[in-house]
Amino acid sequence: MKPLKADLMILFITICWGSSYLLMKIGLDTLGAFNLIALRFGLAFLIAGAIFIPRLRQVNVKTIRYAMLLGFILFIMFTALTFGLKTTTTSNAGFLVSLTVVFVPLIHTFLFKKKLENKVVICIMLAIAGIALLTIQLPFKFRIGDLFCMAAALCYALHINIVSTAAQKVDTLNLGILQLGFTGLYAFISSLLFETPVWPSTTNSWMAVLFLSILCTAVGFIFQTIAQKYTTATRTGLVFSLEPVFAALAGFWFAHEIMNSHQYWGAALVFLSVILSSINVKVGRRSTIKNGPVSLDTYTPEFK
């Protein structure tokens, strides 16, 4: 798979996840936090598992271990996000969760001892500026829920980095499916301990859960796992920074929320950061021979 196709797959996931905030709020009207996560990931696992049963028969122990770890990280992430949405504003949550774009390269640098390139730093700064314009509503007040949202961003950045490593070592389709099952299992156990598990009681809740399960979870996380084999963790984080843009568009189309001029500028900056990160700039070094030709070997990509 070419890197462009992988980026387009991640872009499609980002569009789906942009609508997930609205759907989660609908689901939380009748379901507990752990109950919603268990249904979302449990149904996604059953649907994907039923489609790919022959592939799952080839699963190995290494894949299961990675899936258990990734499922646990996703469970912590969605638990933090769900409780964060209950105790802070949507604008604060949208901005703080989008800090994933910063945490991904920082964690990558820490884990693999690699220096951040100047181009990546510029793209991250543009993305954060755009996200701030798009989501923050003044006065910005810090709430306990903001800590939950920051924890969710940190967990997801860790998830992206581990997926990038695991995708080179195990079957990505099996990994993507199994992590859903483990996430749903952890959430179901928590729901039994702290809630009373129930089925959705309204048509809107069922529609929200099914959309979250099929597109946002089954398709989303499996596509992410497969696509990350062919792109970098930092590029993945930058494309995911478009999530608040699509969240704002979903709010405009379905909830009739109007964007102001600052939000339009913010969306433009986020798009610009992703476009710049996808451009491969080749820089040539001067030849040591006066007026001599420059060898093609002296050209190296600045960003991959």
TrEMBL record:
Short name of any one Pfam family annotated for the protein: EamA
Cellular component aspect of the GO annotation: plasma membrane
Query: Which cell locations does it reside in?
Result: Cell membrane
Membrane topology label: Multi-pass membrane protein
InterPro entries per the UniProt record, alphabetical: Diverse_Substrate_Transporter, EamA_dom, EmrE-like
Q: What is its main location?
A: membrane
**Bilayer-spanning residue ranges:** 34-54, 66-85, 91-112, 119-138, 144-163, 175-194, 206-226, 238-256, 262-281
Q: Describe the location of the EamA domain by residue ranges.
A: 5-135, 144-278
Q: What keywords would UniProt list here? A: Cell membrane, Membrane, Transmembrane, Transmembrane helix
Please report which protein family the annotation says this sequence is part of: Belongs to the EamA transporter family.
- Which PANTHER family does the record associate with it? EAMA DOMAIN-CONTAINING PROTEIN, OS03G0707200 PROTEIN-RELATED
What is the protein name stated in its UniProt record?
Multidrug transporter
Which species is this UniProt entry from?
Paenibacillus solani
